[in-house]
Design goal:
Chain lengths: 335, 335
DNA sequence: TTTATTTACGAAATCGTTTTCGCATTACTG
DNA sequence: CAGTAATGCGAAAACGATTTCGTAAATAAA
């Protein structure tokens, strides 16, 4: 059995309420009594029961982080930032993975309506095309902050990177390096982040008066083997692109592997550029040109905003989107 | 305000206890009443307050995962496995990162003494040299399962991989490929996992009658720049090794970078082998030979055991260590 | 000295569930 | 038909902390 306040009260011949007040340093309690209580609490190794506190105080000092996956440097780094921000302020972090399933995401958000968490950080799944499940928890008074994979139709704070611009610049870069037939690999048509990148890509093509190839935008799936087949087909087709932009990190591997298998040289035959936070990008064969996202910073900033909101009384999150820029790092795969 | 049982009771002209029993499908309640209650609950979108339940039932359906870091494929994959196991059984996962600090780890475990979590999965920090902080939570009745970075002096369940054997085999592999002057990069002398790998390495050297070089075992730190300097010094010294074993994933980057900078060719000048779960290992320049650990499986197995223990009444965890083997995958960096 | 005010503490309600009793009905048994 | 057993529900006591309110004593103000 754990030590409770009641037990402390007995030991010290004080009332339960006095103990509680003493431990929260209330002005109602004399310095001397506080001393005695604190000492005894340490002596008995008293730890307040968080569930009792949460029940009474209707706040849990816990936030939820909802992510599509974790085996992606971006999300790992983001969690790192989130955990750092949370632990600094004494908050706890619950992790939930949707594995890109909207149904799972929906079920999780439903579960959050019960008050398990004080707030939510979310990066939606690739299948997420609507927002009612998110709006519902917000309506229940639980603040939500988006990061990276945001949804614009929800009026709350969002952290993102300059997807359109980075993609535009990445495309320009490939064009400057001589590509005339680009392909763009995306993972969803529902994600804003994905669409912004597509649009940046397309706008750059347009601005440079490049015709879009048939192969221009490839919709990848959530199935790694399938993606690999598609990419291999793309690279062995007649219209074989001379440049590929992978809009997410996990599409890098199949591209490189397909090139190896097809004996295509990077960058001579195909230039490759990826949105990625892989630490090993400079070590790849050849070193990979990346659009590197501010993963850690986005996670930390999003968490900090959410926590600030939680710590105030009735503060409501702004609905503005904060943009933290990505960096294009040119390496050999596009030279 | 949230919908509570009391509210349901009012709406249906029933007592609070009846509602509760109906919702838990108690035999005391008639089928008809159950139907009414369930229907009303859905209608009002009733969600039981988890903190009230936890307080009453003294279990939280939550486990803690304590890790040194997350920007490491091994731990990302392990979390993946853990989350999968937990969500299957309706458990929630709290994530805590020690950043290799023993003090943080200790503080976290102290915090767990209050009943926030029903059980703990832990991979200890590189600084962790004692176990009293872990033994204390166990003594408080909170089960702990180790994975990967285990401590043998705690009598509880542990999941690990065949570190000694993998390291032994990895070393043999390098010797077979002609190396005569190996170096081994480790991160801690306190971690069993690290020591096992060192011992496997040393035993292989001994079995093959190889003298240990001066440079044999290098203690790396938690500081990336410092490690880089050390590795560079190692590779530019007189006793330059012709083979390097990096005992953790994050030491791969500095080795490759140092080789690049020093214009050393892998594998001709130096062969490189790493304990790593990097998906990009086959894409590196050159492709990296790895000892690949069963990260996902270890995470999932450890979580499943912990959860099974939590779901039984008074079950106590065995103290035996389960070993899930790693795989040596030979690639060009050691050919 | 009397009244007002502070100081220091305790009793009890509360948060929302779960669970143990107890108490009526109704159904069954001998 | 008396007595036992099952059925269906409600009252109330937990779980452990916080908070409001009350009150006695001590101090200050009149």
């Amino acid at each position: 059995m754990s030590i409770t306040i009641k037990r402390l009260a007995q030991e010290l011949n004080l009332s339960v309420s006095t103990i509680s007040k003493a431990l929260t340093d209330s002005h109602e309690i004399s310095a001397e009594t506080k001393q005695r209580v604190i000492q005894k609490a340490q002596e008995l190794n008293y730890k307040p029961n968080p569930y009792a506190s949460s029940l009474r105080g209707r706040k849990s000092k816990t936030i939820a982080v909802v992510l599509p996956e974790i085996a992606d440097s971006f999300f790992s780094l983001a969690i790192n930032g989130i955990e750092e921000a949370a632990s600094e302020k004494g908050y706890h972090v619950l992790i939930y993975l949707t594995h890109e399933s909207f149904l799972k995401e929906e079920a999780m958000l439903k579960d959050f309506q019960n008050g398990r968490v004080d707030g939510i950080l979310i990066s939606v799944s690739r299948e997420t095309a609507g927002s009612t499940h998110i709006q519902e928890v917000i309506d229940r008074g639980i603040p939500v902050v988006f990061f990276d994979r945001i949804r614009e139709d929800v009026s709350t704070a969002k952290f993102t990177t300059n997807d359109y611009e980075s993609s535009y610049n990445a495309t320009l870069h490939l064009l400057e390096k001589g590509c005339r037939n680009l392909s763009f690999l995306c993972i969803s048509r529902d994600l804003l982040i994905s669409n912004s990148r597509i649009q940046g890509y397309q706008q750059a093509l347009k601005d440079k008066n490049m015709p879009e190839a048939e192969t221009a935008v490839i919709n990848c799936t959530n199935n790694a083997e399938e993606n690999y087949r598609m990419i291999k087909a793309l690279l062995s087709g007649k219209q074989r692109p001379d440049g590929i932009i992978a809009s997410v990190e996990k599409l890098t591997n199949p591209v490189y592997l397909a090139c190896q298998e097809l004996q295509l040289r990077i960058p001579q035959d195909v230039k490759v550029l990826s949105f990625s936070n892989l630490e090993t990008a400079p070590l790849l064969n050849p070193a990979l040109t990346t659009v590197t996202q501010p993963a850690f910073d986005m996670g930390k900033a999003a968490a900090n905003l959410l926590l600030k909101c939680l710590q105030k009384k009735h503060s409501i999150l702004g609905k503005d989107t904060q943009v933290i820029p990505s960096t294009l790092i040119v390496r050999q795969s596009t030279v």
